[in-house]
Write a structure and sequence with these properties.
The structure is a single chain. By secondary structure, this protein is α/β, with parallel strands linked by helices. The chain has eleven helices and eight strands. The protein has helices spanning about 5-20, 30-40, 50-55, 65-80, 100-110, 125-135, 165-180, 190-200, 220-225, 245-260, 275-285, and strands at about 25-30, 45-50, 85-90, 115-120, 140-145, 185-190, 205-210, 215-220. Strands 1-2-3-4-5-6-7-8 form an eight-stranded parallel β-barrel, surrounded by seven helices. The protein is elongated. The structure holds 3-methyl-2-oxobutanoic acid (KIV). 3-methyl-2-oxobutanoic acid (KIV) binds next to strand 6.
C-alpha cells in the first residue's frame, strides 16, 4: 500500500473497514516471511509491533528494543506487505519526551521504513505527541488498556480496567485519543464490557487484543497465533498451530539423518562426469 506513498489510502482503508461493520483483522509481523504470510492469508492490517523485542530479539520486555532495530524489521515487513496498511510501533523512549522527538521518530517509520501509520501507547501527556504527529501529516493509532511499554516485570501483564475507576480512565483515554486525531485504537487486556464500551463510545476502528468480541476487530501476535514462541501465552491467545513443535521436530529429524548418514543422498547433490573426475585425479597425481 505504501508503494504509492499514500498514508491517506491506509486511512481510508481503515475507515471503510469500520463502516463495513466487518471485523478488522490485524496481525503482527516482524520480517519478510511473516509479512508475506500475513498478506497471503488475507489480513486487513499488518502491525510491526514492538513485541518484536520479545518475540524475535529475545529481550525480557518491549522496552528494550532500539529504534534502529525495529526500523530494520519494519523495512523487511514493508518489502513483503504491499497491499494492506502497515502500522509501525514507536519504540519505548523514542517519542515520549517531546513533540519534536515524536514527530522525528514517526517520520523515520514512514519515510525510511514505509509505514502508512504509526502506533504509540497511552494518553495523558501522549495526547500532545499524537496531536503533533497528526499535524505533521502522519496518521496515528492509539493504544489503551494494558500498555506493554509500561510493564517492567513479567507479573505486570495483568488485565486493566477491572474496577470502575480504571475502566473510566480507559474510556476517557480512548475518547481523548479520538479527539486529538487517532485514526484507530488498539485496546489490550481489558474486560469484554470495557472493550464494548470503548467501541460504542468512539467512532474510529477499535481493535482489541484480549478485549472481548465486541470491538471492531482483533489483533494477535504472530508468534502467539502460530505457536512459535516458548512458555505461557496470555489467556486471550488462541493457538492455531504448534509451529515451534513442527520446526523442532523437523530440525531434529534432519540432525538424526546427518548423524546416521541418511542425509544427503546422491540425488540431493551435484554429479560430475566420470571422465572429468578421472582427469582431476590424474592431474593431482601428476602434480604431487
Ligand atoms: O507490539 C505489539 O505486538 C502490540 C500488539 C499487542 C497490539 O502492540
Amino acid at each position: 500500500m505504501r508503494r504509492d506513498g499514500s498514508s491517506a489510502a491506509a486511512l481510508s482503508t481503515l475507515t471503510a473497514l469500520r463502516a463495513s461493520g466487518r471485523p478488522i483483522v490485524m496481525l503482527t509481523a516482524y520480517d519478510f516471511p511473516s509479512g508475506r504470510v500475513a498478506e497471503e492469508a488475507g489480513v486487513d492490517v499488518v502491525l510491526v509491533g514492538d513485541s518484536a523485542a520479545m518475540t524475535v530479539l529475545g529481550y525480557e520486555t518491549t522496552r528494550a528494543i532500539a529504534t534502529d532495530e525495529l526500523l530494520m524489521l519494519t523495512r523487511a515487513v514493508r518489502r513483503a506487505v504491499t497491499r494492506v496498511p502497515l502500522v509501525g510501533d514507536l519504540p519505548f523512549g523514542s517519542y515520549e519526551h517531546s513533540d519534536a522527538s515524536a514527530v522525528a521518530t514517526a517520520r523515520r517509520f514512514v519515510d525510511d521504513a514505509g509505514c502508512d501509520t504509526v502506533k504509540l501507547e497511552g494518553a495523558g501527556t501522549m495526547l500532545a505527541r499524537v496531536r503533533a504527529i497528526v499535524a505533521a501529516g502522519i496518521p496515528v493509532v492509539g493504544h489503551v488498556g494494558l500498555l506493554p511499554q509500561s510493564v517492567t516485570s513479567p507479573d505486570g501483564y495483568r488485565a486493566r480496567g477491572r474496577d470502575a475507576e480504571q475502566a473510566l480512565a480507559i474510556v476517557a483515554d480512548a475518547e481523548a485519543l479520538e479527539t486529538v486525531g487517532c485514526v484507530a485504537l488498539v485496546i489490550e487486556a481489558v474486560p469484554a464490557e470495557i472493550g464494548a464500551l470503548v467501541t460504542e463510545r468512539t467512532s474510529i476502528p477499535v481493535i482489541g487484543i484480549g478485549a472481548g468480541a465486541a470491538t471492531g476487530g482483533q489483533v494477535l501476535v504472530y508468534h502467539d497465533l502460530l505457536g512459535l514462541g516458548e512458555g505461557r501465552v496470555p489467556r486471550f491467545v488462541r493457538r492455531y498451530a504448534d509451529t515451534r513443535g513442527t520446526l523442532v521436530d523437523a530440525v531434529r529429524r534432519w540432525a538424526d539423518d546427518v548423524r546416521s548418514g541418511a542425509f544427503p543422498t546422491r540425488e540431493e547433490g551435484y554429479g560430475m562426469p566420470a571422465e572429468a573426475m578421472a582427469e582431476v585425479r590424474e592431474r593431482l597425481r601428476m602434480s604431487s
